[in-house]
Amino acid sequence: MPPLFRIKSLLPVLVLLFGQATSGRLAAQDTWYAAYGRAMDDIAAGRWQEAVQNLDAALQLKPGPEVNARTYGNWRPDYLPHYYLGLAWFNLGQYEKAQAEFNLSLQAGAILHAPELHEALLGYMRSVEDRLESGRQEKQNQEHVNAEITRALEFERQGDLDEARNRLETAMNLDPENETVKEHLRRVTDSIHLRDEQARQQQVDRLLNGAVRSLEKGALEAARDSAERALALAPLDARILNVLEKVEQRSRQLSAAEDDRLLAADSLLARGRRTLEQGRLTEAGRDLRRALQLDPRNRQAREYSLRVDSLIAAQARSQRQGELIREASLLLDRDSLIFARDRLIRARELGPDPLVDSLMSRVEQRLAERERLSREREAPQLVLNLPSDSTRRFT
C-alpha cells in the first residue's frame, strides 16, 4: 500500500506553500502545485474522486512528472501525478485505469528516484494485475453461468427437468450467491418434485389395482406382494391398508379350509387302504384319487393310488385274458383253428399263462394234422393230371 503517512507529514508545508502561492500575482490563476496539493489533501482524506479531478487539473498544467519540482518559493515536492492517479483509480475499483496510470508513472521514470514510492508502485501493480485477472475469471465465470442458465431453460422447455436441474446446479457451483440461478433452481426442483409425486401416485394406483384384481381371482400371494409394494410407496394410504386386511382375512379363511381339506384327505386315505386290503379295488381307487385331489403332496396317497391302479390294470388284463382263452376253447371245439390261434396270440400278449400255452400247442397240432391230410388228398389228383408218357419218364 502507498505510504500515505508521508503525504500527511507534508500537509503543513503544503498548506503554507499553497497560502503563499495564492498571494500576489498568482492569486488570480491556478497552478499545478496548487491542484497537486489539493489532490494530496483528497488522498489523505480518502476523497478519491476529488483527487482524480485535481490530479487531472495538475497534469493539464504540468504534464511531466518530476522529483524536486520547482514551485513558488523554496518548496520542491516530488511531482508524481500518474502514481497518485493510479492510486485513486485503484481505490475506486477502476483497475484498468489504475494499471494505465501506473505504467505511465514507470515510463516517465521520475518515480525511480523515490525508492519508497517505487516499491509501493510495484506492489500496487501486482495487486492490480491480480484483481484484473480475478475480474477476467469472474467475467468468464459469469458467462459460463449465463450459458448454463440458457441451456437449463431450454431443457426445461423441452421437458427434460433432470438435465435442467443438472445445468442449474453447475451454475450454482460456479456462483453460489446468484439469485437468478437460485430462483430457476427452486422452480425446476419444485417441478421435479411434482412430477415425481405424480409418477409415484400413478405407480401406487397401478399396484393397488393389481392387488385388487389378484384378490378377486384368489391369488393371495400376488395380491399381498402388489399391496406391500404399494404400501412402501405410500405408507399412510388407507386404501392399501384395507386391501391388505382383506388379504389377511381371506388367508385366515383359506387356512381353516386348508386344515379341513387335509383332514378329509387323511380320512379318505385311511378308508382307501382298508378297502384295498379287502380287495375292493374300485372303491379303494376312488377314495385314493379323491385324497390326492385334496392333498396333491400326500406321498402315501400317491403310492397307494399307483398300487391300486396297477392292481386294477392287472385284474383287467387277467379278465381279458380269461375271455380270450374261453373264446379260443370254443373256437377250438368248433375246429375254427385259425380264429382260435388268433385269440390265443392276443391272450399271450397280455401275459404268460400255462393254459394259453397248452391250448396253443393243441391248435398247432391240429393245424399240422390238417395240413398233412390236405397234402395226402391232393397227391392222387396230381398223378391223374400228368401226361401219358410221364410215367415212363419218371420210372
Overview of this structure, please?
This protein is an all-alpha fold and 395 residues long. It has helices spanning 4-9, 11-21, 32-45, 48-61, 81-91, 95-108, 115-158, 161-174, 179-217, 220-233, 238-277, 281-294, 299-333, 337-349, 354-384, 390-394. α8 (161-174) packs antiparallel against α9, α9 (179-217) packs parallel to α11 (238-277) and α11 crosses α13 (299-333). The N and C termini lie far apart (163 Å). Residues 1-28 and 391-395 have low confidence and may be disordered.
Task: Fill in the keyword field for this structure.
395 residues, single chain, disordered N terminus, 16 helices, mainly alpha
In short:
This protein has helices at 4-9, 11-21, 32-45, 48-61, 81-91, 95-108, 115-158, 161-174, 179-217, 220-233, 238-277, 281-294, 299-333, 337-349, 354-384, 390-394.
Describe how the helices and strands are arranged.
Blueprint: H1 4-9, H2 11-21, H3 32-45, H4 48-61, H5 81-91, H6 95-108, H7 115-158, H8 161-174, H9 179-217, H10 220-233, H11 238-277, H12 281-294, H13 299-333, H14 337-349, H15 354-384, H16 390-394
How does the overall form come out from the CA principal axes? rod-shaped
Give the termini distance in whole angstroms. 163 Å
**Overall average pLDDT:** 86
Helix/strand class: mainly alpha
